[in-house]
From TrEMBL:
<keyword id="KW-0934">Plastid</keyword>
<dbReference type="Pfam" id="PF01593">
    <property type="entry name" value="Amino_oxidase"/>
</dbReference>
<dbReference type="InterPro" id="IPR004572">
    <property type="entry name" value="Protoporphyrinogen_oxidase"/>
</dbReference>
<feature type="region of interest" description="Disordered">
    <location>
        <begin position="279"/>
        <end position="304"/>
    </location>
</feature>
<comment type="pathway">
    <text>Porphyrin-containing compound metabolism; chlorophyll biosynthesis.</text>
</comment>
<keyword id="KW-0350">Heme biosynthesis</keyword>
<feature type="compositionally biased region" description="Basic and acidic residues">
    <location>
        <begin position="281"/>
        <end position="297"/>
    </location>
</feature>
<comment type="pathway">
    <text>Porphyrin-containing compound metabolism; protoporphyrin-IX biosynthesis; protoporphyrin-IX from protoporphyrinogen-IX: step 1/1.</text>
</comment>
<keyword id="KW-0809">Transit peptide</keyword>
<keyword id="KW-0560">Oxidoreductase</keyword>
<dbReference type="GO" id="GO:0006782">
    <property type="term" value="P:protoporphyrinogen IX biosynthetic process"/>
</dbReference>
<dbReference type="InterPro" id="IPR002937">
    <property type="entry name" value="Amino_oxidase"/>
</dbReference>
<comment type="similarity">
    <text>Belongs to the protoporphyrinogen/coproporphyrinogen oxidase family. Protoporphyrinogen oxidase subfamily.</text>
</comment>
<keyword id="KW-0285">Flavoprotein</keyword>
<keyword id="KW-0627">Porphyrin biosynthesis</keyword>
<dbReference type="GO" id="GO:0004729">
    <property type="term" value="F:oxygen-dependent protoporphyrinogen oxidase activity"/>
</dbReference>
<comment type="function">
    <text>Catalyzes the 6-electron oxidation of protoporphyrinogen-IX to form protoporphyrin-IX.</text>
</comment>
Length: 566
């Protein structure tokens, strides 16, 4: 889960004016908006004739797992004598699913041996999409990750340590306030001097952090309530509100502090105040020495963000290459049947027709609204709970300007320096924020040009769904000319516009309770060996998906170790 520190690193979007000539819809040959329409499992429960076809298809594919049979296998053993039953099927080859498979292979190789990852699309990566063309390299989903140790472990285990690129930790991050881009303090020593907040606002934040503020109200607080109470209105309006847009594209009045920024929430719970909790956490860390750090891991210098030489897509592709034939693309899970003797039968739509297989465990890393449909025949209560999570739309709009189009006052030593900028909703711009992609990582744009990745939309602006791609580029360009780009500059080159109709799960008030209710419903219904993963469970940041993957892999390993028929 993202922390307030994460917020500073993990960001966002922007927009601009009607000066843009977006050549044509999809003029650059980009894929059109993602679609998230999945079929309800009930519609695809295979009938007997279909099952006969499954068997033929499976044998043609030389697939190792068992085909489904009309009579469920006894005690979870496949009809061919148990050779073909899988230990685990991971559904979804986004970062969560792939990392769970890699974590099983690297951390638990003895137990989970027959594992496959199935993916509905014809490519791996889920939300991660990197495009390279005409000397530009841009991201159409996430733009970077925090190089935490679990993430770096995944990078090293994928053989990508030499491809890792890290941003300059000293590069500034900006927030738009009062028509001006103002740097965000990056270290404690900056706090007294940064001009994003007034002296009175800083004092209020300092006293509040020390504990001079109203006590917790006794109900689950929104991010807005928590921050206004603990740190005051200015911290909320000028720092946290834009950061909520940056992480969740969310509305801080409905996001849950406990669910969305649990590490900060816990500081007050554990230490009586944010600073008290920080000191307590430091003391506890010092008292319980950490295990030695894996010497293979690179050491980032300071707080920064990472990617790869050829973009984020390198990670899912590297993991997929390592997994080889264990990754099944264009395999869309259409139904799940719980077998009487234990385990599950899964039915897939594949390019070769319907295929079914049997497995001891299933890990669902599909979005919750897909999991809801698939799990409904097994547990209506779990399905209802899963249908409650909300994913607002976000568009990722990549544009390029010549360097000379940047306003002179935005240049440092003649360059556009920094991670990017965030825009509070109160500041009269539609774009959520802008990543300075060509400043952050090398080789993202040809010489003389800058590449800006803008995010627009989110929980407070779902109207983006009715805009054309040209209109989205125009909106971004219009906003950028207010503070970053010379108002008289030529139209930008519009590189990629990808609309994510259901982009990022919102960790709203009640999120953890709903998640818990889902797990209880599965457990009470005897749906054992069915694990939930993915960003609505682990947290939305890529780093949290990776940490969540290690956790789920350990749970699967634990279950399989105890599995009666192992
Ligand atoms: C626009 C945008 C910007 C973001 N920016 C950042 C950022 O800068 N940094 C950061 O850390 N995070 C960022 N995030 C969040 C992060 O990208 C996601 O949380 C993460 O990629 C989710 O990975 P996942 O594997 O959990 O889910 P997904 O990527 O959604 O993967 C789920 C997979 O399941 C597949 N699937 C669905 N249905 C079926 C089915 N029936 N059968 C088989 N497969 C199925 C899907 O095709 C998909 O590949 C951003 C997200 C978005 C959308």
């Amino acid at each position: 889960m993202a922390t307030l520190t994460d917020l500073v690193h993990f960001t966002t979007t922007s927009t601009s004016s009607g000066h843009v000539l977006f050549p044509a819809t999809n003029c650059h040959g980009l894929p059109s908006s993602t679609s998230s329409t999945f079929l309800n499992s009930r519609n695809f429960f295979p009938s007997s004739p279909t099952r006969r076809r499954d068997r033929l298809n499976c044998s043609r594919l030389k697939f190792r797992c068992s085909v489904s049979t009309i009579t469920p296998p006894i005690k979870g053993v496949a009809p061919d004598g148990g050779q073909s039953e899988l230990d685990c099927v991971i559904v979804g080859a986004g970062i969560s699913g792939l990392c769970i498979a890699q974590a099983l292979a690297t951390k638990h190789p003895d137990v989970a041996q027959n594992v496959i990852v199935t993916e509905a699309k014809d490519r791996v990566g889920g939300n991660i999409i990197t495009v390279e063309r005409d000397g530009f390299l841009w991201e159409e989903g996430p733009n970077s990750f925090q190089p935490s140790d679990p993430m770096l472990t995944m990078v090293v285990d994928s053989g990508l340590e030499n491809d890792l690129v890290l941003g300059d930790p000293n590069a500034p991050r900006f927030v738009l306030w009062g028509g001006k881009l103002r740097p965000v303090p990056s270290k404690l020593a900056d706090l007294p001097f940064f001009d994003l907040m007034s002296f009175a606002g800083k004092l209020r934040a300092g006293f509040g952090a020390l504990g001079l503020r109203p006590p917790p109200p006794g109900h689950e607080e929104s991010v807005e309530e928590f921050v206004r109470r603990n740190l005051g209105d200015e911290v909320f309006e000028r720092l946290i509100e834009p950061f909520c847009s940056g992480v969740y594209a969310g509305d801080p009045s409905t996001l849950s502090m406990k669910a969305a920024f649990g590490k900060v929430w816990k500081l007050e719970q554990n230490g009586g105040s944010i600073i008290g909790g920080t000191f307590k956490a430091i003391r506890e860390r010092n008292n319980s020495p950490k295990p030695p750090r894996d010497p293979r891991l690179p050491k980032p210098k300071g707080q920064t963000v990472g990617s790869f030489k050829k973009g984020l897509t390198m990670l899912p592709e590297a993991i997929s290459t390592r997994l080889g034939s264990k990754v099944k693309l264009s395999w869309k899970l259409s139904s799940i049947v719980k077998l009487d003797g234990g385990g599950y039968s899964l039915a897939y739509e594949t390019p070769d027709g319907l295929v079914s297989l049997q497995t001891k465990t299933v890990v669902m890393t599909v979005p919750s609204y897909v999991a809801s449909g698939l799990l409904r025949p097994l547990s209506a209560v779990a399905a209802d709970a899963l249908s409650k999570f909300y994913y607002p739309p976000v568009a990722a709009v990549s544009v390029s300007y010549p360097k000379k189009a940047i306003r002179p006052d935005r240049l440092i030593d003649g360059e556009l320096k920094g991670f990017g900028q965030l825009h509070p909703r109160s500041q009269g711009v539609e774009t959520l924020g802008t990543i300075y992609s060509s400043s952050l990582f090398p080789n993202r744009a040809p010489p003389g040009r800058i590449l800006l990745l803008n995010y627009i939309g989110g929980a407070t602006n779902t109207g983006i769904l009715s805009k054309t791609k040209s209109q989205l580029v125009e909106a971004v360009d219009r906003d950028l000319r207010k503070m970053l780009i010379n108002p008289n500059a030529n139209d930008p080159l519009a590189l990629g516009v990808r609309v994510w109709p259901q982009a990022i799960p919102q960790f709203l008030i009640g999120h953890l309770d709903i998640l818990n209710a889902t797990k209880i419903a599965l457990s009470d219904g005897g749906i054992q060996g069915m694990f939930l993963g993915g960003n609505y469970v682990s947290g939305v940041a890529l780093g949290r998906c990776v940490e969540g993957a290690y956790e789920v892999a350990a749970e699967v390993n634990d279950f399989l170790s105890r599995y009666l028929y192992k």
